[in-house]
Amino acid sequence: MSLTVITGGGRGIGAATAMRLASDGHDLVLCYAHDAQAAETTADRVRDRGVGCRVVRADVRDPDQVDALFDATALDGQVTGLVNNAGTTLHLGDLADTPVDVIRRVVEVNLTGAILVARRAVRDMVGGAIVNVSSAAATLGSPHDYVHYAAAKAGVDALTLGLAQEVGPRGIRVNGVAPGIVRTDIHAAAGDADRLRRLGPQVPLGRVGEPEEIAEAIAWLLGPACPYATGATLRVAGGR
Ligand code: NAP
């Protein structure tokens, strides 16, 4: 039996991953921060595929809420997988013009949150796999957009590498996926609803990615078809 936690599982890449993993027979726990309606809608669609799905509100920045998320998961059985996906960009612009509270929040959600969730997951897991959702930004640097977000995601890549070596001997694999620009609400939420239309043609493959295309890579890294990769971050960015 597979029991997989997806942070940020209510919307975007997390929701597409939930649907993909449900098709593989994973029971799921979807964590969200604010949008309960989206999480419940995704959970209903997951249950329609014949698997169990629990919805938990937890802010990944708060270690007590992270503990509550995994305590709730334990009610359903032994956790076998984690998709460490919750993230936000919040704001676009030069670093010099980015408010300190935005920088703190972006680093806390994307990096501190990912570390706290991974820490609790490896305490609970006895084998299984983790996929951390990074970004192509980690290696592009994202000048004039969000260099602090890029720095946080570079930290996620280091988390993947180091944690994989710590927990490999326990039979837990840790990998990452680094998406390019993907069709979700994250861009409009940062104040640029036109970003997908504008940047798609600049991608070598000529278009933005779809959440389902990222979900496919996550499902592969998480599953039995990928037994020997660990510490790797797979770029799924259309050539960027
Ligand atoms: P999205 O559609 O905006 O969804 C973000 C998800 O993260 C939502 O479910 C949200 O919860 C959750 N979340 C945000 N802050 C949280 C917190 N403090 N605690 C718990 N959950 C929180 O974004 P997305 O595009 O799917 O992004 C998913 C991941 O992919 C992120 O790590 C992002 O950095 C990464 N990524 C995205 C792109 C892209 O172009 N879309 C590119 C590269 C990497 P609510 O639903 O409750 O708000």
Describe what you observe in this structure.
There is one protein chain. This protein has one domain (3-236): Rossmann fold (3-Layer(aba) Sandwich). It has a seven-stranded parallel β-sheet with strand order 3-2-1-4-5-6-7, sandwiched between helices. It has nine helices and seven strands. Helix 1 (12-23) links the parallel strand 1 (3-7) and strand 2 (27-32). With 240 residues, it is an alpha/beta fold. It has helices at 12-23, 36-47, 63-74, 100-124, 137-140, 147-167, 186-189, 195-199, 211-222; strands at 3-7, 27-32, 53-57, 81-84, 128-133, 172-179, 233-236.
Q: What are the main properties of this structure?
A:
seven-stranded parallel beta sheet, 240 residues, binds NADP nicotinamide-adenine-dinucleotide phosphate, globular
What is the helix tally?
Answer: 9
Global geometry: globular
Q: What composes the largest sheet?
A: 7 strands, parallel
Termini separation? 36 Å
Bound molecules: NADP nicotinamide-adenine-dinucleotide phosphate
What is the radius of gyration computed over CA atoms, rounded to a whole number of angstroms? 17 Å
Mean pLDDT across every amino acid position: 98
Number of domains: 1
